[in-house]
Amino acid sequence: MSIQLFLLNPILRFRIKRRFKKKPDILELRPVMAEAAAMQKPVPADIDVAPVKLGDIRVERLAAPDVRTDAAFLYIHGGGWVAGSPETHRALTWRLTRQLGIPVYAVDYRLAPEHPFPAGLDDCIAAYRALIASGIAGSNIVIGGDSAGGNLTMALALRLRDEGVPMPAALVCLSPALDFTYSGASVLENGKADTFFVPEIMPTVGPIYHPGTDAKHPYLSPIFGDASGLPPTLFQVGALEMLRDDSTRMSANMKAAGNTNVQLEVWPKVWHVWQIMADLLPEGEKAIGDIVTFVKKHLPQPTPKNTTGNTPMIKVHHLNNSRSQRILWLLEELQLPYEIIKYQRDAVTNLAPPELKKIHPLGKSPVIEDEGRIIAESGAIVELITQKYGKGKLAPAAGTPAYDRYIEWLHFAEGSAMLPLMLALYTGRLGDAAAPLQPRITSELDNYFSYMNGLVEKGGYLMGKEFSAADIENSFVLEAGKMRGFLANYPNLLDLINRLQARPAYKAALEKGGAYAFA
Questions:
Q1: Looking at 121-135, 148-162, 230-244, 299-313, which range is the least confident one?
Q2: Is 241 designated active site?
Q3: Buried b vs exposed e over 353-385: b needs ≥16 C-beta within 10 Å?
Q4: Which of 58, 144, 335, 495 lies in the 20 to 30 Å Cα band around 233?
Q5: What is 123-188 written as a DSSP string?
Q6: pLDDT of residue 70
Q7: pLDDT value of residue 201
Q8: 317 near 324, Cβ under 8 Å?
Q9: Is the CA virtual torsion 364, 368, 372, 375 positive or negative?
Q10: DSSP 312-376
Q11: Which residue is catalytic, options 89, 272, 298, 318?
């Protein structure tokens, strides 16, 4: 035990526990935490602290110099669901960004009683979804929180699992409050030993935070939820805390459910969420060091460089007989290193397997991972890859009229052209039942193929004499059109698709991607 811990404990008991004895009301946390925040040391000057938004949710982003942008720590502050803010926890969050080398996003979620359950939890899940939408893979995100924030961390993980959202790499729960029935033996056993709280404060929380909701609801009391399928989790809690058994029981539940990556640390002598006093407490610094070690163990490292030392390995989540064949072709044309993760369509429904939803919520292909970021939609992928790695190949210079036409062609493939083509493919299975739709579908297809045929000179490409990524992006349109007989009257397009499919890079992608019915 450090001398700081020895000296601070009686001071905190006098200033805080005595206050709760006189008035056991969770709302007393508001002035207590406001006073504590004022005692923090300033954040070091080289740590960038900025209010930003993840979707519509306010967060505080803390970033040390040269942080990775393909990963993130989503931090959820404590304060009994009624108090606290990102500012009250900066002594912890700035250390996390510096030692982990990733940005920390501290969620400024709505508080009770003004915004009772599930408002705060809804804000946290919206912030997490926004991180994924920004291109950061769930497997590159860590979620952590303390006390009430630890509760929200675990409840958020349960919701993500239940809703089929990609799970984070790991969870960090610091002195989490996980049982609104207060059935853990430590609530009474440690009533006197706890530096801050008294048992009488516990019944004041429910009516404020979750009026009218069953205390055993798993998103309120994760201790009563299904503990299977959760990410690797670190619990840190004090041996003398009233909430000690929330951590010990939850970790036991997770292990019993098959999670072998659960780390429980029960620290002697320390008080509730001692980590946020790292400015003063060596034990706080040490605990943060353990958090960093745990996170680094489970957070994927940056994608390794290729032999040239300047281009990351791109992962392509490739579904057979899908548009992702174009992405393999593009990568072959640019001679970029890539890894294929293959998926097979269901033999009965012809749909993508559910495993793709673990990569992207839409469960579709193509999807790529580039430096930890998840990108879907073929047009967006083609544009991103050519801009980032093309070095002037396969795309005109930005800001030129040719580039404007190039972007138009990229979006034409999945915009104008694809809708009537897909309708033709689907209604073709309906036989006579689809007859009333066929004239309109055929008219639309004739309009688009006639437009393309008129702009493509024999021996040329969509952009004129130069082959470009626009030809790759539109190849699926032409392949599907040819397969269905829609190109019979458009010789220039038939000539184009035949020449495209004869390219060495196309054949190499076909060999690596596997059987492709449209070739």
A1: 299-313
A2: yes
A3: eeebebbbbebbbbbbbbbbbbbbbbbebbbbb
A4: 58
A5: HHHHHHHHHHHTTB-GGGEEEEEETHHHHHHHHHHHHHHHTTPPPPSEEEEES----TT--STHHH
A6: 87
A7: 94
A8: yes
A9: negative
A10: BPEEEEEETTSTHHHHHHHHHHHT--EEEEEE---TTT-PPPGGGGGTSTT--S-EEEETTEEEE
A11: 272
- Pairing mode, if any, of strands 57-63 and 48-54? antiparallel
**Coil, helix or strand for 263?**
strand
Catalytic residue at 298? no
Chain mean pLDDT for the chain: 91
pTM assigned to the model: 0.67
HSE-CB for 9 with a 13 A CA cutoff: 18
The pLDDT of 232-260, averaged and rounded, is 97
3-state class percentages of the chain: helix first, strand second, coil last, to nearest 5: 45, 15, 40
Mean pLDDT of 291-316: 75
Catalytic residue at 272? yes
User: From the candidates 85, 147, 247, 365, which is the catalytic residue?
Assistant: 147
Active-site choice (28, 87, 241, 383): 241
Phi and psi torsions of 500, nearest 5°: -65, -45
**Is 68 a residue whose pLDDT tops 60?**
yes
Query: What is the sign, positive or negative, of the torsion defined by CA atoms of 288, 290, 291, 297?
Result: positive
Report pLDDT digits (tens) over 32-50: 998 888 888 999 999 999 9
